[in-house]
Amino acid sequence: MNRSLLFGSLVFFLWSCQSGKTENGIKPPPPAPVIVLSDEEKQKYHDISEGFLDSTLLRGKFNGSILIAKKGVPVYERYIGVRDFREKDSITASTALQIASTSKPFTAAAVLKLVEEGRLELNSLVADIFPGFPYQEVTVKMLLNHRSGLPNYLHYMENGGWDRKKLATNMDVLTTLIEWKPNRAYRPDTKFNYCNTNYVLLALVVEKVSGMSFPQYMKQNFFEPFGMNDTYVHTIEDSSRIAPSYDGRNSLWALDFSDGPYGDKNIYSTPRDLLKWDQAWYKGQVLSQALTDSTFTAYSNERPSQHNYGLGWRLLMLPNNKKVIYHNGRWHGFNSSFARLTDEQVTIIILGNRFNTSVYAIARKFYNRFGPYDGKPGESEE
């Protein structure tokens, strides 16, 4: 390109940015800020992370992967142990582990993307989406913020006689709700009650509205666009390729009926991919600003608490106005902790496939190494 053409293009670009429109009349997205982290800063945060983790989590029998980032730049990264204790294959940066309930923010984002596109409304009744659904007052928003009052399929299906060895599907959960009509846990929208049924149904909502399978929708709309090449939604059909999980004695955790559904869990990912997911939120690539703000708003305020829930995300809100956007996961030997300290732009990602409940309390204490997040660790949340 010659100098005059280059100059003309630059002038047009600057004019377009100032006027808020391109030649097609479409407002361009704001340019992503250039993140610069000096070598001294990288070393500082590496040393903070290493010192804390060496004296806490890594003193035990941790098996998994860890990534700590500042302003999107990894400052500490470790891969410890093996993917499969039978094969002794090492965990690497590309080893996808199940993130358990840390899958829920992805499911929520899929639903909210459909809302943003005008294909769904937050206050849509679930009974209007699924004919025969017996809980008439429940809305999509109540599923997202865990205020639906629905019974947990993990309990009512087992108590109702479902064969534990027969993997259930999302449709099985919906069918049993319609046909068995188990008693609801409480009246809808009266309080928060964490319930996996909500997110199994939300994955079905995505499929019904989009006309695509949930795994394909997530791949096409999030994983591929964000470069999350080692991330996928596990289905019953591809069970042979997943990383297994283990109890604290290194015994293989056997699958049961509840390992089938997705949406509430069953996304497999890596710390590097989850950092891309984290950064996509900062760059405004996931949802519009209005819906992003709604996502990170607390919806259960019946009683004062530092802990709350948005639309797919847990929220820690401290008296000093510090806020943590996070989600933990715990499922059949898998443990995950994914926290976003947005004031400091620090991201904490810990994944494991050998049962280790210390992950959550240690991650919570880790916040204090980056800012004033003092307080007692939260209760067991999964």
For this entry, give a set of tags.
382 residues; alpha+beta; seven-stranded antiparallel β-sheet; three-stranded antiparallel β-sheet; globular; disordered N terminus; disordered C terminus
Task: Describe the structure in your own words.
- The protein has 382 residues and is α+β, with helices and mostly antiparallel strands.
- It has helices spanning 3-19, 39-54, 104-116, 126-129, 140-144, 153-159, 170-180, 196-210, 214-223, 271-282, 289-295, 358-366; strands spanning 64-70, 73-80, 82-84, 89-90, 97-98, 232-233, 267-269, 307-309, 314-317, 323-331, 334-341, 346-352.
- The chain has one domain (39-369): DD-peptidase/beta-lactamase superfamily (Beta-lactamase, 3-Layer(aba) Sandwich), CATH 3.40.710.
- The strands form three sheets. The protein has a seven-stranded antiparallel β-sheet with strand order 2-1-12-11-10-9-8, with helices on both faces.
- The longest helix is centred in the N-terminal third of the chain and has 17 residues, at 3-19.
- The protein is globular, with a radius of gyration of 22 Å.
- It starts with a helix and ends in a 16-residue tail after the last helix.
Output mean pLDDT. 90
In what order do the strands lie side by side in the largest sheet? 2-1-12-11-10-9-8
General form:
globular
Number of strands: 12
CATH class term: Alpha Beta
The number of helical runs is 12
CATH superfamily: DD-peptidase/beta-lactamase superfamily
Q: What structural class do the secondary elements suggest?
A: alpha+beta
Order of helices and strands: HHEEEEEHHHHHHHEEHHEEEEEH
Largest sheet: 7 strands, antiparallel
Give the uncertain stretches in residue-range form.
1-29, 376-380
Terminal CA distance reads: 57 Å
Supply Rg. 22 Å
Beta-strand content bin: 15-25%
